[in-house]
Amino acid sequence: MDSRRVVLITVAALLLLSARFAAQRSAAAQAGAPGSARAAAPDDYTGYWVSEVTEKWRFRMLVPDKNDYIQVPLNPEGRRVAALWDPAKDEAGGEACRSYGAAALLQVPGRLHITWQDDNTLRLDTDSGTQTRLFRFGGSPPANEKPSWQGYSAATWGGDEPRDRRDGQGGPVQDKEGRLVVDKAQQRTADYLQVVTTRMRPGYLQKNGVPYSANAVVEEYFDVFSDPYTKNTWLGVTTMVNDPQYLIEPLIMHAHFKKLPDASGWDPTPCRANEPR
Amino acid sequence: MGSDAMQSKRTALILVLLLVASRPARAQVDVTGEWSPRVYNTHMDIGDYTGIPINEAGRLRAESWHPDQLDLPENLCRPHPIDIGLRVSVSQLRITTETDNETRQPVGLRLHVAWQEPEQVIYMDGRPQPSANAPHKWSGFSTGHWERNTLVYTTTHLKEAYLTRTGVPKSERATVTTRVHRYGNLLTIVFIINDPLYLTAPYIRASSWIFDPTQIIPPFPCEISPDGTIIAAGKVPSFMPGKNDILADFATEYGIPLEAALGGEETLYPEYIKKMKTMKVAPRTSTEHYRRAQ
Predict the structure, then answer these.
(1) Among candidates A254, A202, A230, A253, which has minimal Cα distance to A98?
(2) What is the pTM of this model?
(3) Contacts with A67 from chain B: Cβ below 8 Å
(4) Closest-CA residue to B42 (of A11, A208, A68)
(5) Does the distance separating the beta carbons of B294 and A265 come in below 8 Å?
(6) Test the A interface: residue of B34, B54, B148, B252 with most A CBs within 10 Å
């Protein structure tokens, strides 16, 4: 083979491979201003998604009976409050959205529509209860932020911690000024969405009035993956609710959603106190 | 071939080496250690196949299962297959690095689960799959790789077993793709089960553990009672097709249409809530059945 051709083919191959590796950093080739959260997104979270309810089915596809909280590590005060559940009273008192708050919204069967509201705000709309969550990158809740059903959600791309604090492969080092800095070569690549939500109105972890308080803190981890069998794209969410007022330990829940090609099946409902969605 | 050609090949080689060196370092998050379970189990009732994309053959097998089968001598100390053990029993988990006995080089990871002490090695050294005719085991055969910070492994060669503790079957042809995510001190494992014999779609479910470096996993001794001690010798408890007289108990107790309680892919999606409203529900005798397990 001509020697120049060898070099040309090699260079072309390298460019193609480099492009592939760059695409791994942002699989969806997100648009967005350089340095923005949108530009740094490790995956494409946008689009329409539908719940696939394979876990806690009877707690999600039906309204469970009052006091049925076998899946929830409630403390005595939580049990006391759960026993007070009265859906008719919630409806009459304008509190029908209690079971659609940030801590439990993704447990409610339904569809999601995720979009970038701006370069640093990821927006999640649900058809069930017609709720909107805003995942804000690079901010913290303003001091005067009023409590709401969806609270204030601070978002980061997670997983880019120094490699690794436990495995001896590195970690922060001191620079000339004595500050701890991370060698970029020792930094892992972010690969999931982490959301911490506070400033919520008191709500329900289940449709049957199992409570969380205004002091609850909700941590969520979102991952996009494909399954090797159907090649479907999935959104997996792990939710951890920290609420010492009503829980003896953090409650961990899971939900997953299948990606849809379009908005078909989108079925907006109002908040309903005595319906599964 | 002259020196130009040699130079070109050398240049190409250097470019390839540069590319390899410039690839992001393999993001191997440390998932080893002691992990304390935060598993909230479901599917503890006969006739509860909710949320499972089960097919007719799977349903027939499940309906013939009798809870007394667990007391047969051969089942008393039978371990769960590893993927089921991680999901249906609230089990402590230990993950360690697996090394080659001779070279002491790491070849993968080893999972140890408390209940019945199943062990699973996830090979990450590129070794080939065993023959399709190789023996099937409770731990199967697993090969893994990293997708950025997520450990992904596929398990084949699993023994026939079940998806729930109440008899929903999983065939020996099932394979499981497992995704292990570490979020700080939280470990989430997502199981994607594909079973061409008993499922119409992959069955996805997840469990989580909390990092607990002081955790101690006690031994799990298990002794088999002699044949005939619990169940009469020679008897295998089961239900003949259509003769399971406790099949509808779960649906009745919780006010669920029987058809919905018996699972299927359609039942997994939000639209099914509307459909259930048109279906017949047996009269409930109580709304406090949950108390027996609470």
Answers:
(1) A202
(2) 0.87
(3) 288, 290
(4) A68
(5) no
(6) B148
Which DSSP symbol is given to B287? S
| Token digits of residue B135 | 């023996």
Residue B142 predicted with pLDDT over 70: yes
Cβ of B254 and A62 within 8 Å? Answer: yes
For residue B177, give Cα distances in angstroms to A11, A130, B162, B197.
36, 34, 16, 17
User: What is the interface pTM, i.e. ipTM, of the complex?
Assistant: 0.88
Q: What is the C-alpha separation between B100 and B111, in angstroms, rounded?
A: 16
Quick one: which of B45, B52, B49, B53 has its CA closest to B262?
A: B49
Q: What is the mean pLDDT of chain A?
A: 88
Nearest CA-CA distance, residue B184 and chain A, Å: 8
Rounded-to-integer distance, Cα A273 and Cα A204, Å: 10
Of B66, B80, B149, which Cα lies nearest the Cα of B114?
Answer: B80
> A102: Cβ–Cβ under 8 A, 6 or more apart, which residues?
A133, A149, A150, A151, A153, A197, A200, A203, A218
Q: Do B273 and A109 touch (CB under 8 A)?
A: yes
Query: Which range, of A134-138, B217-221, B276-280, averages the lowest pLDDT?
Result: B217-221
Nearest Cα neighbor of B266 from B276, B256, B277 is B276
3-class DSSP assignment, residue B110: strand
Mean pLDDT over the full length of chain B: 88
Q: Are residues A61 and B188, on separate chains, in Cβ contact within 8 Å?
A: no
A270 with A130: CB under 8 angstroms?
yes
- Picking from A5, A9, A51, A52 by the largest number of B CB atoms within 10 A of its own CB, the best residue to mutate is A52
Give the long-range contacts of residues A135-140, CB within 8 A, separation 24 or more.
Answer: A135/A193, A135/A195, A137/A36, A137/A37, A138/A37
**Spatial distance between the Cα atoms of A209 and A205, rounded to a whole number of angstroms:** 7
Whether residues B30 and A191 touch (CB distance < 8 A) is answered with: no
How confident is the model over A66-84, as a mean pLDDT? Answer: 95
* Per-residue pLDDT at B82: 80
Beta-strand relationship, A132-137 and A152-158: parallel
CA dihedral B54, B60, B66, B69 (to 10 degrees): -80
